């Protein structure tokens, strides 16, 4: 355990040193250029020759400038975009002070602090929800596999093959209703898979015009049900369950007369209430050993899951253009070339990932000591 913590500490110190050197170099060498560019743009705005809220007048300004400077069309386009962006920045309370002439490290930390803790809260909630959902779905899927449950499309196919002939109207109606049920369930399952595998930005833009997607609730929902996160790690945990079920120690468990049925309705089976419990326990059943060992093997995958989740949350905030959130602020800093703040935000996100790795390693080491009776 001590060696693991030392490795993590060395990594954090080295990364912090690199980021710190680059931060202060950028802060000292880019601030004068940013201020000068701000003053240059402000001169065009102060002349009041153009109504920058009027697209027609902006287009006329661009055309006139190109007539006088025909070889600088690219520069003129950049100037028009910079003026528009600067005016948006001045009118947006979220970034009004982004280009203050002097913004210290303490001021940056003070500005980013509330957004950072909000991001940590969302990240922690989604990580806990995915950890629970991954295990629940994997256990439910494993039980269905042990029950020899077929897919809805296969059930529909078999039902059509065994369709009744020359039967009363009542039986034909029941036959049609069963087929419609199988078809509806198959379509619902297909739509669910489509959502779970869809990239988060696709879902974000699909729902952006229909609901208030600026809320924290939508960030949590998108983080949980998009980008393939849930389905990918459910499959990983399910694989661990299947592999554990093939090991020899289960034969010993069966000899000890432990329950082995995976039906939900029988007394010696696996009730749905136990599957959906937050802390899952299956006393007196062989699945208790399968689940416990699979969960132990899954703990190191939490580090990979955390990195996957962080990427998804970053994309969500940027795709939804959620103001006053950490990653949208990061995007704005890129736009306004405030690279010192970009480095600070990036390092703060790195600390979240590294903290998750440390906690996952400590949890795994604790479980290992229990297994090895240390």
Structure description:
The chain is an all-alpha fold and 374 residues long. The protein has 2 domains: 2-105, no CATH class; 108-149 and 197-371, MetI-like fold, CATH 1.10.3720. The protein contains 15 helices and no strands. It is flat and about 85 Å long. Mean pLDDT is 78; it is low at 93-101.
Structural class: mainly alpha
Query: How many domains make up the coordinates?
Result: 2
Shape category: flat
Low-confidence stretches: 93-101
Helical coverage, percent range: over 70%
Number of strands: 0
> What is the overall pLDDT average?
78
Order of helices and strands: HHHHHHHHHHHHHHH
User: Main sheet?
Assistant: none
Number of helical elements:
15
Secondary-structure arrangement, i.e. CATH architecture of the largest domain: Orthogonal Bundle
Amino- and carboxy-terminal Cα gap: 13 Å
What is the gyration radius calculated from CA atoms?
A: 29 Å
Query: Given this structure, which CATH class of the largest domain is correct?
Result: Mainly Alpha
Determine the strand fraction and express it as a percent band. Answer: under 5%
> The CATH topology of the largest domain, please?
MetI-like fold
Summarize the structure.
This protein folds into 2 domains: 104 residues, no CATH class; 217 residues, MetI-like fold (Orthogonal Bundle).
Give the key terms.
single chain, 374 residues, mainly alpha, MetI-like fold, 15 helices, flat
How are the SSEs ordered, and which strands pair?
Layout: H1 2-46, H2 55-68, H3 73-91, H4 105-146, H5 152-161, H6 169-197, H7 200-208, H8 216-225, H9 229-245, H10 249-255, H11 272-275, H12 287-298, H13 301-320, H14 326-335, H15 339-371
